[in-house]
Amino acid sequence: MKKQMFGFVATLLLGANILLPVFAQAESLSDLDKKESAIVRQSDKISGELQLALNDVNEKYQEVNDIRIKISQNEATLKKTKANIIETEQKIEQRKAVIAERMKTAQVNNRTDRSIEALLEAKDLGEFLNRAFAMSVIQNAEKTKVASLGEAKDQLTELKATQEKTQNQLKKDSQKLEAETAKLDNKMANLKQELADNKTNLAKISQAKEVETARQAAEKAQKAQAAKEAAEKEAAEKEAIKKAAETKKASQAVKAQASSQPAKTTPSVSSSQQPVASTSEQPEPAKPAVPSTPTTSGRTLQMESTAYSCAESVNTYFTAMGIDLRQNPQVVAVDPSVIPLGSMVEVSGYGIAIAGDTGGAIKGNIIDCHFSTVEECIQWGRRSVTVTVIS
């Protein structure tokens, strides 16, 4: 029985050494609790940093989207300005061609002399001045039109240069923001990895605590069993001594009686013929109880379900827990007071998902299921669902 007990304790200790190589073999529950508390505090700090990084990356994504919109608008304006410049250049060339044609025609038909004759044919000075003024107005109008077209072209050319400069600056700003966003994404990935490592270490500490608790329980049970066996052995020895003394006393009494009555042949009774008290058989020690494996059953809720998508312009790619919806779309938004964040849930008609997001309108028994496209959200609509909290 003792061998079985020692074998049980040895198995527990061997399991601890195999499963938990990163922990010292002789760590007490107090040491493990301290380690666990330190990791929990570190995880809380990392979670805070992750939330701040999540806010920053969402802001950067919004700035990138705003700059892309400005680049698109500026490209459209620049394209329109270039078209206006080409149109103005064509008008200037057409106007110059018209003026050149008129001058050529005037030279060929000797219209200059005719203009002078028209002035000389005036009846009086007033008519002469009116004709001269009319000719001057016509000439000035042609010059003004050509000049105005030239000014319009200069303004458009200047506007084009400004827009091109703005476009280059917007592209530089966009590249800078995208680089900052990439750094934030990398920072979030590192923080998530640290949280995952802490979770793994917490699981190992939990296993170590279970092994240490089992070892202490086995050691306590072994000591109790040893004390019980020692007490039983001591009681058996006392009982044997008592019976031996009684047997010896009875034997001495028989001998004394035989010596006082010699006529009677009384067979002597040897001590070997007396019954000898045998040691009582020690009871077999009870086997230590094997701890039963706990079982959990999912909590079931009747909830109202809506739908949302990161493809919508008003939403971002990252949830309240920092999950990238582009890589892990199977996420639901919940009220943390009803379903804790990080829980695994099964939604009827949707499937198994992680409760990894929140929302201003998600209060009480409302769950918001994420879909990759807006069309899937419209198809889902609003419906009543059964939600089972798995873990």
From TrEMBL:
One GO CC annotation: outer membrane
Q: Compositionally biased, Low complexity: which spans?
A: 252-280
The processes (GO biological process) annotated in the record are: peptidoglycan turnover
Q: Which residues form the Peptidoglycan hydrolase PcsB coiled-coil domain?
A: 86-157
The protein's matches in SUPFAM superfamilies, at most eight in alphabetical order, are given as: Barwin-like endoglucanases
Signal peptide annotation: 1-26
Protein name per Swiss-Prot or TrEMBL: 3D domain-containing protein
